[in-house]
Design goal:
296 residues; alpha/beta; four-stranded antiparallel sheet; 10 helices
């Protein structure tokens, strides 16, 4: 049995003169969480739709379980969309029962209720759920056919920190069952924690791919020194001999050697009282590669 669960081979999608996805290829292995990252318009959702079988590629193909993806295999996929409309007036339990009837076979509802922690609001009208509760229901519906591969399209957007962490735990549980997950997200801490491998997209192409920690090590050494721009007292950031970016009023200097970086700043009498030091993150990587923020 091949270790590769699903594979995108040279996917391309054109809409008249617009190229949404130019040439995307990657593999997702069994039990892996694979993250697709990038700003709005990068082609992430279009790539997902082709891999889900919802949109036909202009060229290229999707291979699932060693075969070209077609309708006969789609029942083995689970999909949580960015936005899903549910029938009004149905309770959470009734939504589960309705979706279960759409499949010839489905996972036991008691298992789904436990896995997604739905017990406390089973009898609540689905329109009256909090953001986190609704997302847990959406993931339960994506799992109701007991799929082998689950697509999660920005599952934690708009959730508070506690609800996001609850969803993270749920994703880890899904992985522990041996299922594969393809995740899109704008939250880089989320991708770093959940994803075994990531692909960063921009303008319809993958511009970097690999394990998060290895990717960061391949592009960055040393630390990032963050200083409020006003603490430079008008000094040009280029004067310090360090690469830098300016974001939200803060100058972020990249220092391969922290000691050398600090000496360079002190020689210019920079106020270091509000300076902070951190390691590079995925957002730094995307900015380095494309010159723009991951979130737009």
């Amino acid at each position: 049995m091949t270790d590769v669960h699903i594979e995108a081979r040279h996917l391309r999608k054109e809409y008249k003169k617009l190229v949404a996805v130019a040439d995307v290829s990657f593999k997702v292995r069994r039990g892996q969480c694979f993250g697709l990252l990038g700003p709005n318009g990068a082609g992430k959702t279009t790539t997902l739709e082709m891999m889900e079988g919802l949109t036909q590629p202009t060229s290229g193909e999707v291979i699932f379980l060693g075969k070209r993806l077609d309708r006969s295999l789609q029942h083995r996929l689970g999909i949580q969309f960015q936005s899903t409309s549910l029938q009004d007036f149905l309770t959470v339990k009734e939504c589960l029962q309705l979706f279960a009837r759409l499949y010839k076979s489905h996972r036991r509802l008691e298992e789904l209720i436990r896995l997604c922690a739905l017990e406390d609001f089973l009898d609540r009208d689905n329109r009256k759920l909090s953001g986190g509760q609704r997302q847990r229901l959406m993931i339960a519906l994506a799992l109701i056919n007991n799929p082998e591969l689950v697509f999660l399209d920005e599952p934690t957007t708009g959730l508070d920190p506690q609800a996001r962490r609850n969803l993270w735990s749920l994703v880890e549980e899904i992985k522990s069952e041996g299922k594969s997950v393809i995740l899109t997200t704008h939250y880089m801490d989320e991708a770093f924690i959940l994803c075994d491998e990531i692909a960063i997209m921009d303008k319809g192409r993958i511009i970097a791919q690999g394990e998060p920690k290895k990717l960061l090590r391949s592009y960055f050494e040393g630390q990032t020194l963050e200083i409020p721009q006003e603490d430079l007292h008008g000094c040009d950031p280029t004067a310090f001999g360090l690469t830098f970016v300016i974001r939200n009023g803060t100058v972020e200097f990249h220092a391969p050697d922290v000691t050398v970086g600090l000496q360079s700043l002190m020689q210019k009498n920079v106020n270091l009282n509000r300076m902070s030091v951190r390691s590079a993150n995925l957002e730094d990587l995307f900015l380095h590669l494309t010159g723009q923020e991951l979130r737009e």
